Hints:
The longest helix has 15 residues, at 273-287. The protein has 305 residues and is of the alpha/beta class. It is globular, with a radius of gyration of 18 Å. The protein contains eight helices and 13 strands. It starts with a strand and ends in an 18-residue tail after the last helix.
Amino acid sequence: MSAHVVVIGSINQDATVTVDRFPEPGETLYSRSLSYRLGGKGANQAAAAAHAGARVRFVGRVGSDAAGPALREELAGHGVDVSGLLVDEGTTGSAFITVSATGENTILIDAGANGRVTSEQLDAAALQAGDVVVLQGEIPAAANAAAIASARGAGATTILNLAPVYGIAAEDLAAVDILVVNETEAGLVLGRPAPRGAAEALDAAAQLTERGPRRVLITLGGAGAVWYDAAVAGGPQGAHVDAISAGPVVDTTGAGDASVGALAAALTLGLDFERAVAEAMRAGSAAVLSAGAAASYGAIEPIGI
């Protein structure tokens, strides 16, 4: 196995508080617990891909504060090559997460060093044909645009998890191989209300392929996901995939990132898109069984071929 998952993206310190319920505007509540963990969509996806059995490199940036070196060490502990993770002056990215007793969450993000990721860092990616490049919306759009172009030039496959949604140029979106969004993000990209139900989501996925990406995965939370593949020989195919219940939901934070990481890992291992989606769903279901994002990924089993 020579192909790598190469994640170019964000890394944060997650400050997570658990509460019985979310506060109303202007209300003060006591939390049940407070923890600080590795986070950021990019770092989460890299950790998940490594747990799923892929060889993973991470390209990003942390600050010179106390959090930066600690996060670098923690990400490496998940089996990720962090030689492309730079340390610079300034603060590390941070996420402030509130988790309710039902496992739902709200998140506020301060970009910190993630906002200073540049296209010049792409040399550290050392992209090769067969690699799978994973991008998100938590680093500057210019860096993503450069990465998409570099991946296309190297013959690598690009997965763009367009979260949060930003105003991506049409030509950049058209050069992406696989687009991953949730239902809200799908609606934002299409400029219409979020799809309701699997049938509408599948229709939205088909419409998203008309923007350029030949494969689309729309995650639907507890309702599972839909996938659409416009590049299949014999004509486009798509389907709804039910959510997998692996046990009681403790914390949904990072479940989507687990799915993206496992999807990328499955593709580097040679699985087709439909089978890769199935592995993504399994990883997402495993990630909700314990608290935290990357901290919960030990439950992700390596993908069997």
